[in-house]
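Contributing new records

If you add data, match the layout below exactly. Sequence lines come first and carry their own label; structure lines follow with theirs. Keep one chain per record. Anything else will be rejected by the validation script.
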Amino acid sequence: MPTHPAKLLVLKTAGVLLISAGPALATSPSFDCHGATKADEKAICGNEQLAKNDQLTTNAFNQAKAKNRKAALAAARSFLKTRAACGADIDCIANAQTQAVLDFGVLGAQLPKPEPEPAKTDSTLSEIRANCAAEWQGDYSMQEYCINQQVEALQAMKPVADSATPVEREILGKCANEWRKPAGYDYRMVKYCYEKQIEAYKRLN
């Protein structure tokens, strides 16, 4: 998605896109990479998963635009501004893509189905391991417990993200933003936040 309101995230699940680097792109983004001049556009053109995320974003934008053109265009402009501020930072771009897809979902776009279980080499698992290692430095028993808890929460949120209503998507997006870490998310707290917010919403309605 270049500089027009027309594109983008993953949800890796709760709101998270997979990132994987590769020398050649089997998937092209929604814009022509030959005309890419900005750092974020070049980063997307050089990363297989970001290119796939870009296609997802475009699809989500088009669906949202068909239902609420004005709001979808406003969300797209905000997303493009956020993504441009990322420069060539792959994690930042992926996070911006994820939030954009969630935003378009609130406007009526259908969220993408969750991907298969992450492999041991998956970047999200690497992020979880790194976050747990930083939180429990030197305590390997707690690191293992932390990793298991995070992976369990991530898996539990996949079906939620897949079948969420617009209100549930909005709550999920806010919880994901609240518990975003420098690398990835605190999935256990995203799940806890989501469940508590849903309980409160049901009591009020």
